[in-house]
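W.,

You were right to be curious about this one. When I first looked at the sequence I had no strong expectations either way, so I just let the prediction run and decided to look at it fresh. Below is the sequence, 387 residues in total, followed by the output.
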Amino acid sequence: MTAGSGDSALEVALDVSAVPGQPAGAGRYVVELARALAGRADCGLTLLARRDDGARWAQIAPGQRVVAVAPSRRLTRLAYEQARLGSVVAALDAPPVEVHHGPHYTMPRRSKVPCVVTVHDLTFFDHAEWHQRSKVAWFRAAMRYSVRHAAAIVCVSETTAGRLRDVLSPRCPVMVVPHGVDQVRFVADEPWPGADRDVLERLGLSRPYVLHLGTLEPRKGIADLVAAFDRLAHDQAELELVLAGRGGWKAGPVMQSVAAARSRGRIRRLGYVPDADVPALLRRASAVVYPSLEEGFGLPALEALACGAPLVTTSGTSMAELAGDRALLVPPGQPFALAAAIETAISERPSPGGVRRRADGIAIAARYTWAACAEGHLAAYLVAARG
């Protein structure tokens, strides 16, 4: 389309080459955004995938163009994006691409097509210790380039947008577009009687549990959660702590905190949990605890609210922006306060206050859909296409 003409679809290229086979966090965002955009008549989608990953994206977004050109190895892929991807996108025709979207901080150098870039958080600047040194240098440079040359920036929360303006002073429009939640899967009621029990039996869970869902890495506050659980374990004799998610970078110290815990025999690691099992895991948790020190958005917190789970998370973060008083909020890095909040979340669940908090959380989560997320991205694409 000639951008804004309204008589045909805006042609958008979405770089999906960084999404792993078992996506979490930012990868989940890209998958769900691709699905939602593929269902719109006003957006034509070209998915730029790794050379060995085209078939997956053809299934995720049926009927959309998939161009599997990116190298599979991360360092080679990043260099390819910077040096060559811009020319590849500009050369696409029938139909030509009008906007390119880099959903993970970066964009091609010297792109002839206007670009939209998603910024998830500013931790490469604020907390370099949470990342590999080589990634810090790369992404700092890439983000500085993006804020100077992108036609629009998408931030996933007001928290991130404010920090981006403070740190990098972008020259282009900054648009806040929150993530969504799958309103079919993440619901408070199990799909049929006994469905959740079957999932928990398959995962080997038979006792009450506190759940953490997410990649296991230092910024997730897992050591604080383990210390908090140690304080609770004596009085909550049946309670287990369940850690669901892959080990991330510097997972070693996280695992050391588990190994050193007095209650280590009641801490369960599930590893990566298939998407289909996650709602049951959330619904049946005595409490979902997401004590991350910082997040761009905090999708597991939203999914927990949608499933009606009591949520404990950290104040002053994007999760607090999202949940407000529907969650119990604790300052980051304070395991004593975290233990008290978890105990409150468990004890108040059947009370009128707990029931009201649960209903309010479900109502908040219902406002966040992937269709709305796609709508917000299309608005950013139109801003970019119109220059």
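Here's what jumped out at me. The chain has two domains: 10-180+369-385, 195-366. And, maybe more interesting for your project: Residues 10-180+369-385 form a domain with the Rossmann fold fold (CATH 3.40.50.2000).

Coffee later to discuss?

I.
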